[in-house]
Amino acid sequence: MPDDAAPSPAELAALKAAAAQAAAEAAEAKAAAAQAALEAAEAAAVGTAGTVDTSPAPEPPVRDAPADAPPSGVPSPVDGPPEAAPPTQAPPSGVLDGYAAEVAAGYAYQGGTLALGALLEATGSGDPVPRADVQVGFSLAMLNRHGLVAGATGTGKTKTLQGMAEGLSDAGVPTFVADVKGDLSGLAVPGVSGEKILDRTASIGQDWEPTTYPVEFYSLGGLGKGIPIRTTVSDFGPLLLSKVLGLNDTQESSLGLIFHWADTQGLALLDLKDLQATIAYLTSDDGKAELKGIGGLSAATAGVVLREIVTLQAQGADVFFGEPAFDTTELLRVAADGRGTVSALELPAVQDRPALFSTFLMWLLADLYQDLPEVGDLDKPKLVFFFDEAHLLFTGASKEFVAQVVQTVRLIRSKGVGVFFVTQSPQDVPRDVLAQLGNRVQHALRAFTPDDAAALRAAVRTFPTSPYDLEQLLQSLGTGEAVVTVLTEKGAPTPVAWTRVRAPRSSMEPAPEAVIDGIVAGSPLAARYAVAVDNESAYELLTARIAAQQAAAEQAELAEQLAKEQEAARKEADRAAKKESAELEKMRAKLERDAARSGGGSRTAPRKSTASSGLDKFLGSMATQLGREITRTVFGTRRR
After folding, report:
1. Running DSSP on this structure, what letter comes out for residue 323?
2. Domain count of the chain?
3. Owning domain of residue 611
4. The pTM is what?
5. Are the C-beta atoms of residues 483 and 464 closer than 8 Å to each other?
6. 505 with 617, same domain?
7. Does an H or E element contain 293, and which?
8. Does the residue 41 lie in any domain?
9. What letters, b where the CB count within 10 A reaches 16 and e where it falls short, cover 122-131?
10. What is residue 385's three-state secondary structure?
11. Gene3D superfamilies per the record (predicted)?
12. pLDDT in tens, 41-51
């Protein structure tokens, strides 16, 4: 071919193919070099879990470039610029290498799985790329090892919780969720499809379609919409009630003493007026002696407790205590189609009383522990309990209260119940509680203050070693993204995975009020719990006891007064009798003297006899009358 001859189409095609092959080989070489650099960095890093490498962390491994892509910075030999791959395009299934392969292997379970999302990979520039072929999720069998969902406000914690509740329902596992703001009521309404959500779900390999879920709505004592959940004061117990009332250690101890006395007396503390009546009785003259042998109750402490109870009643919280008491096993219900029921406790009406509703949630958990049998490890839990706004539970909590929470969380695992604490920062949960949480979903954390920065570094130290610079990554996570590590079926932590969380299939908006009202009205639990009842309890029994004691005291006082009056009347009658007797004696003596002066001799003898006879009659009549008066006075029949 002459030097100035143009290449034929076949020769041009061959040249293009050769150039593409060279570009592919260059890309492979570059990827191999990057992988070697990553392995060298990992070998140099500290290899213990939970240790932070202070040196700059390497970039997360990037997926291999497509075979027909030119190396970075090298122009394409073909005419025109190459088409850029979509940023969410995933590599072909099965093509895994580096850290993505490690993550995929770590989250491959033999048993049931609760899907959470897909792995995200950094691209070195631009947005991260989701790997639809690397799914991240929980082992259903390990959900009773409990967990933590944490993150700053607006990072997607609530939607993560909603998606987890949906996945558990599909797996036949009932869940309990505390709906503080009313957002989770959307579980009862199908989600709204759209281009944005379909693009997102397709990019992470989620099969999305609008779905409704079986939901049961509850409310605390009937405040708000839902089946009322009530409990008795006795079942709630002095420790939890002290937390609600804000009592100090001394006052908490005194409250425990009051509960103990009521139990020994067979007095049922059903509602707050029962507790008020008991405290009032124990500080009264009749009841003070009741507690002397076991420590006593000071009037000052009793006054503080009574004032706090009045404050609680003024907030309307007294409706939480009473009957019919809620049976917590109702939370274990499964719908007719085999899906687990989502029990949503609607709390918007009491969100201004956080200590109350958070402590009430703790009572639900503690009551479940008391009622459920031991079952050990199951293929899937009997119930998963989501404890939202968990930081409110521990604010100002006493050591005894925290110890009870730790014990309940530690032991309820064997009852087949998993507990997830949902809060803003891991620092909100006490270390003893945090140590029981094996599954972690960490959304973005903010570090606006030195305290925030310290909390961020502390959170980083709790994660296993990974190629991520977690201190930087946790501050840059987008909404709906999280850093995840959970427990495998062998109890070991999975690799840390930067995850894009699945979108809920139900509505992400609150359900319309008409929908909630219809579900509540049609619930089989409405007939059982809707109407409050007031059975005989401590208030009625102590009121009757006090009335009986008052009646007995009045009778004793009346008898004592009557005895005093009778004694006074007897003394008065004695004095009157003595006085009248003396007067009669004087009269008799006077008559005798008068008779003696009137003359002597035989002529006067009959007259004397007559006078003596008249005197004797008069004296007899006076004696009879005097006897009657004395008798009437002594026996209280004297007319006045």
Report:
1. B
2. 2
3. 556-635
4. 0.72
5. no
6. no
7. none
8. no
9. beeeeebbbb
10. strand
11. P-loop containing nucleotide triphosphate hydrolases (3.40.50.300)
12. 444 443 333 33
